[in-house]
């Protein structure tokens, strides 16, 4: 949802109101900008030279805030993933203006007309970004990937790297990538399948003009290159989480399974889209059959994302296994420090434990505070995503007031019914009594209001 595109600028007129409502920062205070300019000039002094290693990046073509670069080499039957992550902590000191502003923001916020970055561009899109225009300081995590896809963190070091190429998802060829990339990602995918992971990455939504006038929401399926690249990040984050837990420290990303109520609602959503979900098949098994290039299956993937109980952060607790249900493993966030505050501290802890040093006291203290800060930032990001989708849905259906639409009731309570339109990726509420999940109904669009991001339906039959 965060990548919803608006090439025709159909949403622009109302996005400013969303930015105002959620107090999305338009820029940075002068003191923070000055601190970023000064930090960008800081020369690395604690980094080994790894500029001879062939690193590349793989991102959207337009991206300039590049957190990750990678190189791969064989080690017997294993493959070594050298995963270089932007060394944000080299530029940002505890308690300085950059640090304080990052704690206020928590994450980078995304809207179709631009983002509100966690750090100023002098860092996030220049000095700290792993762009191929010169050497950059990084933290390299060396992850050993066994033939069965099992991962282990062999080490971590601060290093100077030089990216050889900025590769793009939509144009990269296998020949452009390091030797072993395809085999490594295949191993990781096979291991994920064996674990029964239920990671759901819905296709990007875009606003497109209809030939006869008006707009529609369409899905751009995720490319194979995106899926493979995500596997690298997942492998590193799992290996890092295991290393931190073994040293009885860390901050973990956790998520529970969807509850029975959510599963029931998803089954009704599948009915709405005409998808056959075998009664005995668990959600993860059904998800594995979905095709993001099919609009209705893509819409169901988005419904799964919305139905989850949400992920959160959890510091290490003695005797507690931090579990992420979608990943089906212990998992940490460490690979996007330019965009997430928590990653900077996880990286610092990992550097310490892998090099036989104590975790800095400030990092341990941060682990206790970060769950609340990140929860607030994630909540704001989620609310913005929902408001943008609501806006896009209202733009899509504007001008179709009075039309009837087939729908299925996915949930009902004392406030009325939640409905899923059968032919559009639209979820709405309907004030009606006596509705039961699974009821097939026809609804009439009363109003489509982009200004207030609102759709109003009434029951037609």
What keyword list fits this structure?
461 residues; 12 helices; single chain; alpha+beta
Structural class: alpha+beta
Strand percentage, roughly? 15-25%
Please tell me the overall pLDDT.
91
| Count of DSSP-assigned helices | 12
Span of the ends, CA to CA: 32 Å
| Overall tally of structural domains | 1
Q: Summarize the biggest pleated sheet.
A: 5 strands, mixed
Low-confidence stretches: none
Q: Helix and strand succession?
A: HHEEEEHHEEHEEEHEEHEHHHEHHEEEEE
Rg, Å, rounded: 23 Å
Residues in helices, as a percent range: 25-40%
Number of strands: 18
Instruction: Give the strand order of the largest sheet, numbering strands 1, 2, ... along the chain.
Output: 1-8-7-4-3
Question: Which geometry do the CA atoms define?
Answer: globular
Break the fold down into its secondary structure elements and pairings.
Elements: H1 12-21, H2 30-40, E1 48-49, E2 55-59, E3 68-75, E4 78-86, H3 88-91, H4 97-105, E5 109-111, E6 114-116, H5 121-127, E7 136-145, E8 151-161, E9 163-168, H6 181-195, E10 204-209, E11 215-220, H7 224-246, E12 251-254, H8 260-272, H9 283-287, H10 295-307, E13 312-315, H11 341-354, H12 361-397, E14 404-413, E15 416-421, E16 427-430, E17 440-449, E18 454-459
Helix pairs in contact: 1-12, 2-5, 6-7, 8-10, 11-12
What does this structure look like?
Helix 1 packs antiparallel against helix 12 (361-397) and helix 6 (181-195) packs across helix 7 (224-246). The chain has a 5-stranded mixed beta sheet. A 5-stranded antiparallel beta sheet has the order 16-15-14-17-18. Strands 2-9 form a two-stranded parallel sheet. The longest helix is centred in the C-terminal third of the chain and has 37 residues, at 361-397. It has helices spanning 12-21, 30-40, 88-91, 97-105, 121-127, 181-195, 224-246, 260-272, 283-287, 295-307, 341-354, 361-397; strands at residues 48-49, 55-59, 68-75, 78-86, 109-111, 114-116, 136-145, 151-161, 163-168, 204-209, 215-220, 251-254, 312-315, 404-413, 416-421, 427-430, 440-449, 454-459. The chain has one domain. The mean pLDDT is 91. Helix content is 35%, strand content 25%. The chain is an alpha+beta fold and 461 residues long. The protein contains 12 helices and 18 strands.
């Amino acid at each position: 949802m965060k990548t919803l595109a608006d090439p025709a600028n159909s949403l622009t007129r109302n996005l400013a109101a969303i930015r105002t409502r959620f107090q999305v920062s338009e820029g940075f205070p002068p003191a923070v900008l000055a601190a970023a300019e000064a930090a960008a000039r800081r020369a690395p002094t604690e980094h080994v030279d790894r500029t001879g290693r062939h690193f590349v990046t793989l991102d959207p073509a337009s991206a300039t805030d590049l957190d990750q670069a990678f190189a791969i080499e064989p080690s017997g039957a294993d493959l070594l993933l050298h995963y270089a992550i932007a060394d944000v902590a080299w530029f940002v000191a505890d308690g300085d203006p950059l640090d304080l502003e990052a704690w206020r923001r928590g994450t980078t916020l995304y809207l179709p007309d631009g983002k509100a970055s966690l750090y100023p561009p002098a860092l996030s899109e220049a000095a700290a970004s792993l762009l191929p225009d010169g050497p950059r300081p990084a933290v390299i995590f060396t992850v050993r990937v066994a033939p069965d896809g099992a991962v282990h963190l062999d080490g971590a070091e601060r290093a100077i790297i030089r990216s050889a190429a900025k590769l793009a998802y939509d144009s990269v060829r296998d020949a452009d990538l390091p030797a072993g990339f395809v085999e490594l990602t295949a191993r990781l995918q096979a291991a994920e399948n064996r674990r029964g992971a239920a990671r759901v990455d819905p296709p990007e939504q875009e606003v497109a003009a209809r030939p006869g006038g008006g707009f529609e929401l369409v899905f751009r399926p995720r490319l194979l290159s995106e899926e493979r690249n995500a596997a690298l990040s997942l492998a590193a984050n799992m290996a890092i989480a295991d290393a931190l837990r073994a040293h009885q420290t860390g901050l973990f990303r956790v998520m529970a399974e969807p509850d029975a109520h959510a599963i029931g609602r998803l089954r009704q959503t599948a009915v709405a889209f005409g998808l056959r979900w075998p009664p005995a098949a668990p959600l993860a098994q059904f998800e594995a059959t979905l095709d993001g290039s099919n609009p209705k299956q893509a819409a169901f993937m988005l419904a799964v994302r919305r139905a989850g109980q949400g992920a959160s952060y959890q510091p290490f607790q003695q005797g507690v296994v931090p579990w992420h249900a979608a990943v089906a493993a212990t998992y940490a966030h460490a690979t996007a420090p330019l965009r997430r505050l928590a990653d900077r501290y996880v990286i610092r802890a990992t550097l310490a434990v892998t090099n036989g040093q104590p975790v800095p006291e400030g990092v341990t203290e941060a682990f206790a505070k970060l769950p609340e800060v990140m929860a607030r930032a994630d909540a704001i990001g989620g609310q913005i995503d929902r408001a943008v989708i609501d806006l896009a849905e209202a733009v899509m259906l504007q001008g179709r007031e009075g039309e009837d639409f087939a729908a299925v009731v996915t949930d009902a309570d004392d406030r009325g019914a939640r409905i899923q339109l059968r032919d559009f990726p639209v979820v709405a509420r309907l004030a009606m009594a006596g509705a039961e999940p699974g009821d097939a109904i026809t609804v009439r669009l009363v109003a489509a209001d982009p200004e207030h991001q609102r759709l109003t339906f009434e029951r037609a039959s």
